[in-house]
Amino acid sequence: MNRFDYVRADTVADAIKALGGDPNARFIAGGTNLVDLMKYNVEKPGRLVDITRLPLKSIEEHAGGLRIGALVSNADLAYDERIQARYPLLASAILAGASAQLRNAASTGGNLNQRTRCYYFYDEGTPCNKREPGSGCPAIGGVNRIHAILGASESCIATNPSDMCVALAALEATVQVSGPEGDRAIAFADYHRLPGDDPSKDNTIKPGEIVVSVDLPPTDYGQHHTYLKLRDRLSYAFALVSVAAALELDGQTVKTARLALGGVAHKPWRNLEAEALLQGKSATRESFKAAADLVLREAKPQSENGFKIELARRAIVRGLEQAAAGTPQSQSDKRIQ
Amino acid sequence: MATQISTSAGRDRFVGGALSRVDGPAKVTGLAKYAGEFSAENLAHGYVVSSTVAKGRITAIDVSAAEAVPGVLKVITHQNRPSVAGEAKAYQDMVAPPGLPFRPLYDETIVFSGQPVALVVAEEFETARHAASLVTVTYEEDTPQTDIAAIADEAYDPPKKRSGIKPPPKPWGDAGAAFDGAPIKLRQQYRIAHEHHNPMEPQASTVIVEDDGTYTVYDKIQGVANTQLYLTNAFGLKPEQVRCLSPYMGGGFGGALRPQYQLFLAMLAAQDLNRSVRVVLTRDQMWSFTYRPGAIQTVSLGTDGSGKLQAIRHDAVHGTSTYEDYQENIVNWSGILYACDNVELTYRLAKLDTPTPGDMRAPGAVTGIFALETAMDELACATGIDPIQLRLINYTETDPVEEKPFGSKALKSCFEQGAERFGWSKRSPEPRSMRDGRELVGWGMATGIWESLMMQSSARATLTADGRLEVGNSTADIGTGTYTILTQIAADALGLPMDHVTTKLGDTNLAQAPVAGGSWTAASSGTAVMKACRKVAEQAFKLARGMDGSPLANVDFERVVFANGRIEVAGDASRSVALTDVLKAAGKDKIEATESASPDKDFKKKYEAYTHSAVFAEVKIDEDLGIVRVTRVVSAIAAGKILNTKTARSQIMGAVVMGIGSALHEESVLDHRLGRFMNRNLGEYHVPAHADVHDIDVIFVEEEDKANPLGVKGVGEIGIVGTAAAIGNAIHHATGKRIRELPITVDKILAA
Question: Cys-Cys with B514: which of A148, A221, A283, B455 at CB 3.0–4.6 Å?
Answer without folding.
Answer: B455
